[in-house]
Structures are given as structure tokens and as C-alpha cells.
Design a protein that fits this description.
Elements: H1 2-29, E1 35-39, E2 43-49, E3 56-65, E4 72-75, E5 77-78, E6 83-89, E7 99-109, E8 114-116, E9 120-124, E10 132-136, E11 139-143, H2 148-169, E12 177-182, H3 185-192, E13 202-205, E14 210-214, H4 221-242, H5 251-260, H6 268-278, H7 296-330, H8 335-343, H9 347-359, H10 363-402
This protein binds zinc ion.
Length: 403
């Protein structure tokens, strides 16, 4: 008899528990139709409709942005009619353009249990423009200004640039690349929000496989393409090869390689280097390991030097040594050690050799060049009294003879 009661109690408990579990599963399965709209660079707006049967307390929207480690969140409000809304300020906390975002809502149910909605996903594209799309091989190009010939040019230059970059790095592009062509540098920079300096003409997020170009129409457009695309592609290729080791590359090497891969080398770099030589204004390569100057003129000189120095290393030691250098850095060696371990010489010594080879710069002669105006002045200062003495002396005997 007691055994029977026990069994009944057990059955009752089981049915209660399974009832609760069922109720919970049902509430979890209820989709509140959470959706998101956004004004690019301004705000995200989440909205959903909560059924009368499912009162939700303290709802919070969570969202995960592609490649970010932190989960973001924002509190949501529920109106009397069950409308759930939440806003997130993108001006204060921007999301990288063209990232994928996963989102969901969590809340407390009336019975104290927790509720998690199904996940939704959206692609945070720059929706200020009507993008057209064209695709070939590894590349998808997006543009909003220009015709299909322009888009085909982008694809052609991308393929040509890829050939250059793959040869330079002895690697192969494995993942696809999305290329967004903005019509002006200003429009591109607003897409980057706080991430780019105000002189930047192109940008890459290598971990997203996305590049941003600025290609105003005009006679320079094709040349701009031939510079920007292979350059940004090299960054992406390096990232694909090195993964997290990419961040260990010294900036001069990362930018140097990208610039060497350009199909149309920047003619301004030679002029900048010539001027730096004249004014003895070279930035030591060592100072370009962690970053480049933030001002435009300092940054351009840094790019020019990085390009020339990288080319010097390639020409002097060959591309196998360059692969070794890249791999040494990717494995965590610091800026000086990587060079020393690869070439058996210090960075500052190679810096001097590069200047001598590239510009025929001899430290003594360049020092003399700079000192020359002062030497002339010094000579003048010393010579004038000497000449005066000499002239008075030579006049005296003549006066004697005359007198
Ligand atoms: Zn670059």
C-alpha cells in the first residue's frame, strides 16, 4: 500500500515537472518577432511584439558583432500594447561597417524563469547608398556611382593586383574579398567613422575580408584603382596567411609590402624622399615599427620610406629571406630581433645601408652638406680680420716707401 502511494507521488511529481518543462519549452519557442532597423552610423532600433500570454520583465537585447569578443547589450522597453523597442547609439559606440551581427532578447517570465528569444542576424552594410553588385572569381565589387564598365575595371584590377600580391608574398588568396568603391574620400571616411585619419584614401579590415576604396571619377580614377586595390589586397593576403601573427608585423613592413605590390607606384614618394634627403629629415625606420605619424605629411613620408626600405630588402636579400622575415615577426619576434635573426644585421645598420644605396647618401657628405652654410659663414668671420691685418701690413711698407 505504502509502495503504491510512493509510486503515485512520483508520477505526480514527474507530470508536474514535465508540465513545467513543457511550459518552459513553449515559452522559449515563442518568437516575439524581434527585428532591427538602423540608420548607418547613427542608431540601431530593435523592435518586436510580445504576446499577451507571455509577459516579459526586464527585457535586454544582446548582440554579437562579428570578430568582437565582447557581447554588447541594451535595455528594451515594453509598451502597454506589448510593443518591445530598444535603441542603441552607434555614434557613441560604432559598429564596423559590413560586419555580421547576431542578436536576441533575454528577459524574466512571470514565473521567474528566464526567457531567451531565437537569434536573428543582420549584415551591417552602409545603407546610405544603393549598392550595385558584380562578382567574378574571388571578388565581389559594390559601387553606387559609375556604370558596369567601372565595376568591370575594378574586377580586372583586382585580378591583376592579386597576381602581383601573390607573387610578392608567395601565397594564395583562399577566401573571397568584398570591395566597396566609394565615390569620394569623404564618403568613405564617414563609413570608417573614428577609425581612419582624415587623409586616408583607402582602408582594409583584413579580418572581415573587406576593403574600402575612394575612387572619384576623372582621369586619375584608373591609377587610383591600381594603387589602392593591390595595396589593400596585400594586407588581406598577409592576414589570411598569418592570422593573429598579422598584428605582430611592424607597420613599416606591413605598409611597405602593400605599397610594393601597387601596380602603379605613387610618384610622390620619390619627391618626398628627395626632399627628406635634402633636409636631412628622414624618419629612422626604427621609429616606424609601432605606427606611423598621424599628421598627413609625416605619414606620407613614412609610407615613402617604408616602401623604399622594403624594396631595398627584397632586392638585396631576395624574396625567400623576406618570407623568413615575415614569419619571424608573425611568430612574435620584436622589430629589431626579426631583422637581426633574418639578415644578421641590426635594423639601424640596414637603415643606413638603404639610405646609402638608395640615395647615394654618405653620412659624412650629407653632414658636410648641412654644415656648408655655417662653414662658409665661419670662414668669412675668420677671414675678414685676417684680410684686414694682411691689408694693413701690406699698406705700411708701401707708405714707408712713399713717404
Ligand atoms: Zn596600407
Amino acid at each position: 500500500m505504502r509502495q503504491k502511494v510512493k509510486t503515485r507521488l512520483l508520477l505526480l511529481m514527474l507530470s508536474l515537472l514535465s508540465g513545467l518543462a513543457l511550459e518552459r519549452a513553449r515559452s522559449q519557442a515563442i518568437d516575439i518577432g524581434l527585428e532591427v532597423d538602423y540608420a548607418f552610423g547613427e542608431r540601431l532600433i530593435f523592435h518586436g511584439q510580445i504576446p499577451d500570454t507571455l509577459p516579459l520583465l526586464q527585457p535586454i537585447i544582446f548582440f554579437e558583432v562579428e570578430t568582437e569578443l565582447q557581447t554588447r547589450s541594451t535595455e528594451a522597453k515594453v509598451s502597454d500594447f506589448g510593443k518591445l523597442t530598444a535603441e542603441y547609439d552607434l555614434g557613441a559606440q560604432p559598429i564596423r561597417a559590413f560586419s555580421q551581427v547576431d542578436y536576441w532578447v533575454e528577459a524574466i517570465l512571470a514565473d521567474g524563469q528566464s526567457y531567451t528569444s531565437p537569434r536573428g542576424t543582420f549584415f551591417y552594410t552602409d545603407n546610405r547608398y544603393e549598392w550595385q553588385e558584380r562578382q567574378a572569381d574571388h571578388f565581389r565589387v559594390y559601387w553606387y556611382s559609375g556604370d558596369t564598365v567601372f565595376a568591370q575595371n575594378l574586377l580586372d584590377v583586382a585580378n591583376e593586383g592579386l597576381h602581383n600580391a601573390e607573387e610578392l608574398l608567395q601565397g594564395e588568396l583562399t577566401d573571397g574579398v568584398d570591395i566597396y568603391a566609394y565615390a569620394t574620400a569623404q564618403e568613405m571616411r564617414t563609413a570608417l567613422q573614428s577609425r581612419g585619419q582624415n587623409w586616408v584614401g583607402a582602408h582594409t579590415d583584413p579580418d572581415l575580408g573587406v576593403m574600402f576604396l575612394s575612387l572619384p571619377s576623372g582621369p586619375e580614377q584608373r591609377l587610383d584603382m591600381e594603387r589602392q586595390i593591390p595595396h589593400e589586397l596585400t594586407h588581406i593576403l598577409l592576414y589570411q596567411e598569418l592570422g593573429s601573427g598579422y598584428d605582430n608585423l611592424p607597420v613599416w613592413l606591413n605598409e611597405g609590402l602593400a605599397s610594393v605590390a601597387e601596380l602603379y607606384p605613387n610618384p610622390d614618394y620619390l619627391i618626398l624622399l628627395g626632399k627628406a634627403r635634402q633636409n636631412d629629415a628622414f624618419l629612422p625606420i626604427e621609429s616606424l615599427c609601432q605606427g606611423f605619424p598621424r599628421d598627413a605629411s609625416g605619414a606620407y613620408l613614412a609610407y615613402a620610406e617604408a616602401t623604399s626600405f622594403t624594396r631595398f630588402l627584397l632586392q638585396r636579400f631576395g624574396s625567400n629571406s623576406m618570407q623568413q622575415l615575415i614569419s619571424n615577426y608573425a611568430q612574435g619576434m620584436d622589430c629589431q630581433r626579426g631583422i637581426q635573426a633574418t639578415y644578421g644585421e641590426s635594423l639601424s645598420r640596414l637603415d643606413r645601408q638603404w639610405r646609402r644605396d638608395a640615395f647615394g647618401e654618405n653620412m659624412l657628405s650629407s653632414a658636410l652638406d648641412n654644415l656648408m652654410p655655417w662653414l662658409i659663414l665661419m670662414l668669412a668671420v675668420l677671414l675678414i680680420p685676417l684680410l684686414l691685418i694682411f691689408s694693413t701690413r701690406s699698406r705700411k711698407p708701401s707708405s714707408q716707401t712713399n713717404g
